[in-house]
């Protein structure tokens, strides 16, 4: 049973059936329960009302219905881009006795933590989600756990998570994506990309002194190709084992148009 989906397969779509749990279903003349009403509001795209209705239901509901109410409140807040509120409700939902609901809540928490740079918490949430799921959902959760672990510089653990993702999927396209992620070895700060090598060399010279004075490593012009296969020259500063170190270097460079990109063998 999937309550919602997050990431690629987790697409934020509630089950069509309003009576997910027997305890929440009412007779035809009794009207919908608060949790069912919140589901209907979510399905209609009225996330603010869905959050408010589910939040009230979370106070009075018991058992699995309490977990479901917290889940709807949390995922509605997520859709409203209120990450603090989403996290508060989803943390409760992640403890639900309904394994499917707990898995989805954990995986969505992983996305929230990743978005906020809280990679250790993200990895733990994704791994918990993976342990409660099967098939492609398990593969997705392990994949994102591995990405978070790479950003922490936990390379052996990341490799284990990515290999578990590879073992769990039957999607050839996703296998290719996992293999590409397995080839990541670190991070660099990319300050420019040029078709003309001379322009790339000029920018590299501009950054060389700044990088040296701040002990950020070498400035390198790396040959590459763009999405259409055309030659490009990438101007990159330093080589870093963690995403955090690369982000710190980016801040020291003072160029917030620069981007952090993974290095691949």
Strand order of the largest sheet: 2-3-1-4
CATH class descriptor name of the largest domain? Mainly Alpha
Helix content: 55-70%
In quaternary terms, these chains amount to: single chain
The CATH topology of the largest domain, please?
Serine Threonine Protein Phosphatase 5, Tetratricopeptide repeat
Which structural class is indicated by helix and strand composition?
A: alpha+beta
* Spans where pLDDT lies below 50 across 5 or more residues: 1-27
Order of helices and strands: HHHHHHHHHEHEEHE
Write the layout of secondary structure elements.
Layout: H1 34-43, H2 47-60, H3 63-79, H4 83-93, H5 99-115, H6 119-131, H7 135-151, H8 155-168, H9 172-182, E1 184-194, H10 197-213, E2 219-225, E3 231-240, H11 243-253, E4 259-264
Antiparallel strand pairs: 1-3, 1-4, 2-3
What does this structure look like?
- The chain has helices at residues 34-43, 47-60, 63-79, 83-93, 99-115, 119-131, 135-151, 155-168, 172-182, 197-213, 243-253; strands at residues 184-194, 219-225, 231-240, 259-264.
- Mean pLDDT is 89; it is low at 1-27.
- With 265 residues, it is of the alpha+beta class.
- A four-stranded antiparallel sheet has the order 2-3-1-4.
- The protein folds into two domains: 1-116, Serine Threonine Protein Phosphatase 5, Tetratricopeptide repeat; 184-264, 2-Layer Sandwich (Alpha-Beta Plaits), CATH 3.30.70.1070.
- A hairpin with a 5-residue loop joins strand 2 (219-225) and strand 3.
- The protein has eleven helices and four strands.
- Helices cover 57% and strands 13% of the residues.
